[in-house]
Amino acid sequence: MPEFEEIKENKLFKFITDKKISMVLLKVFISAGFLLYIIYKVNFAQIFITIAKANLVLITAAFILTALNLYLQFKKWQMACVNLLHSNNKKKIWISLFYGIAAGSFTPVRVGEFFGRSIEFRDKSLLQVTFATIVDKLFLLFVISFCGSISSLFFLRYYFHFALSTIFIFLFIILLVFGFISLMIFKPELLNSTILKRIQALKIIISLRDKLKDFKSLDKIFAVKMILVSALFYAVFILQYAILVAAFSGNSNFFMFLWAGVLVMFTKSMITPFTFIDFGIREGASVFFLTKMGELSTVAFNAPAILFFINIIIPSTIGVILFYKRDNA
User: Fold this and answer.
1) What is the three-state SS of 81-100?
2) How far apart are CA 323 and CA 5, in angstroms?
3) 69, 233 Cβ separation under 8 angstroms
């Protein structure tokens, strides 16, 4: 078709369809969309009123849990350092963790965390530290994805009235996918049957297997421990979120707040790689889910914003101070 050929030769068409440009435009669109959604839904004049009426005991409890949050992050990173970097210097691991949080807090998709964690490990290559960090993050992503995907199905069923048969089909697919990934990591020898070999021949499975091939060399006990500690860290994060929602709302529907926390963390983890900034994704998702559940948009905005402050800004400040002292030592 000559008309289509003319369109293909158009400079604007070439610019938009360029893969790198398309990804940038997509990130701009998604980031702007979340920020505009927050501006549209949240009554900013009510934010400080909501904060003034908040339950200080619950807010204090959320602050205290930050210590446990950081400790569990340390344990995850320590296990990764011991097994992959062959280092168990607790002081160095703590400092590396704080450097990583600080460097990741102001970089897109937290990519600065890889470089930040490597500063203290001058005897290791950036590639080694990056791989250890990816291992640390991937086990947490596994937990987030599993819990979040199942919780999302129940949310669609309850609030959007998806057919029960559709929910069960998607639930079966989710369990099948995560079961297959678990076998690929923990028990690859069980994937030798004819049917499973044919499944493994699929392009998407080959791609996934290539990405997970480096994990086959990991100690299985180490992998189990990483999943358990990641699950504990995840539980503490969700608990902090639920406590803060309860503090700002004055309601006691704690199970619903925990459910919202699972959905918010899942949404943030899935969407953040396609955005420029971390801020706004968590808050926008929180506003969406909690307002669907009957809470005020200001409550939904305040909870993740305060959570970002106590879990990211405070540790980042510690990391900056440690780096400043190191630089001036």
Assistant:
1) HHHHHCCCCHHHHHHHHHHH
2) 56
3) yes
Mean pLDDT, to the nearest integer, of 116-124? 91
Distance between CA atoms of 179 and 88, rounded to whole angstroms?
Answer: 32
pTM of the model: 0.83
pLDDT range class, residue 165, cuts 50, 70, 90: confident
Cβ-in-10-Å burial (0-12, 13-18, 19+) of 302 comes to: buried
**The residue to which tokens 């004819």 are assigned:** 194
Residue 207's CB: how many other CB atoms inside 10 A?
10
For residue range 229-242, list pLDDT tens digits in order. 999 999 999 999 99
Bigger pLDDT: 191 vs 238: 238
Residues contacting residue 96 through CB under 8 Å, at least 6 positions apart: 77, 81, 116, 117, 118, 119, 120, 121
Q: Report how far apart, in Å, the C-alpha atoms of 118 and of each of 86, 90, 121, 158, 161 are.
A: 14, 15, 5, 45, 48
Residue 6 in tokens: 């003319």
